[in-house]
Each structure stands twice: as structure tokens, then as C-alpha cells.
Amino acid sequence: MVRKGLSFEEKRSRMLEWFYDKEDVFSLKNVEKYCSKEKGITSMSIKDVLQSLVDDNMVKMEKIGTSNYYWAFLSEGASVRQNRQLDLEASLKSLAEEKEALDAKIEEAQSTRQESEERTRILAELEEEEKKQEEFDIELQQFKDSDPELLEKKESDTKIAKEAANRWTDNVFAIKSWCQRKFNIDPNTMDKQFGIPTDFDSIE
């Protein structure tokens, strides 16, 4: 199966993770060169991804002379995300209250069955507020997806899974070796009988 390219949010998450890992300051040229290579982000999209992180205050930028320099440290990123998340949650609460008030007005208007300009305006406002709430929900989820604690947990879980897989791989090799010595079974024949792929090996 052909793997689809990275989504824009996946690119943002990978680039932010790259900055956190490096804990250093980089020129745009170096971000394009190293981040693209190490995180699998196409060089053509590096600038757009980087600018979106700067716009969201998740990556810092400073102009020195004629060049721009970028950095993002894990401790700063957690604070920025926490503040942004609090802002989004406050906005969502405010939108929910406005929606509740609009719902009440609509219910009142519907009870009289009067198609007035006021009712039309309220319906339009409600639709707009619902769109805003949906956008805030999406952005809030994106911040949660790029939370450094969650990224660290994913990395830890991946490491544990990898170690477990390699232990099972070692066990399979040990059993194959024992069977070959005990029963003089050809390795290729044994692989075929038990459905063991020819490229079966430990995970690097």
C-alpha cells in the first residue's frame, strides 16, 4: 500500500518536535536543510509550516541583520500551548453562552411563527457562532495533539513496543536454532512451514 504524504498538522508536529530535540537556534536555510531531511518534510513546504508555527507563537523568530533565526524550547512551548489552550477554552465557553442565548431567542421566535428580520438575523448569528465554535474545537484538538507530554509518552510507548517486538524476534531465532540442532531441519524449510518471512529480523 502506498503511504499518503504527511498532512499539514503532521508536518507542524514533526517540525516542533525537531526544534524541541535540537534545543538550538537555526537560520531558515538550516531548518530547510536539516529538518526536511530528519523529519521527512518536503523542502517546498518547510517555509509554510515554519511560518504557521511562528504565527501561533509556538516557534520564536528573531531578525538579526538580514537573516531570520528560529528556535523553540520544550519549556517555553509547554507554557505557550497552555496559555493558548486556556484562551481557546475561554472562547469556547463564551461561544457556548452566546449560542444558548441565541437558541432561546430562536425558540421564542419559532413559538410565534413570525418570519421577521429579527429572526432571520438571529439565525444567521447562530450559524456564524456554530462555525466559530467548530473552528475553535479543531484548533484546540491540534494543540492537544502536539502537547510535548503526549509526544514524549508516544515516544516511550513506541520504544517499549519496539523492545517487546525484538524480544519476540530473539525468541523465534532461538527456537529456530534449537529445532535445527535437534531435528536437523533446513532453515528455509522451517520458515516456509511456519510462515516466517525471509526478511524477518529485529527492528532497528
List keywords for this structure.
204 residues; mainly alpha; 3-stranded antiparallel β-sheet; 7 helices; 3 strands; flat
Topology (SSEs and partners):
Layout: H1 8-22, E1 26-27, H2 28-39, H3 46-55, E2 60-64, E3 67-71, H4 74-112, H5 117-145, H6 148-183, H7 187-194
Antiparallel strand pairs: 1-3, 2-3
Please explain how this structure is put together.
The protein has 204 residues and is mainly alpha-helical. The chain has 7 helices and 3 strands, in the order H-E-H-H-E-E-H-H-H-H. It has helices at 8-22, 28-39, 46-55, 74-112, 117-145, 148-183, 187-194; strands at 26-27, 60-64, 67-71. The protein has a 3-stranded antiparallel beta sheet with strand order 1-3-2. A hairpin with a 2-residue loop joins strand 2 and strand 3. The two termini are 22 Å apart.
Q: Which structural category do the helix and sheet elements fall into?
A: mainly alpha
Radius of gyration: 27 Å
- Relative strand content: 5-15%
In round numbers, the mean pLDDT is 76
Q: In which range does the helix fraction lie?
A: over 70%
> Helix and strand succession?
HEHHEEHHHH
Task: Give the distance, in angstroms, between the N- and C-terminal Cα atoms.
Answer: 22 Å
Largest sheet: 3 strands, antiparallel
Strand order of the largest sheet: 1-3-2
Q: How many distinct beta strands?
A: 3
Low-confidence stretches: none
Helix count from the secondary structure assignment: 7
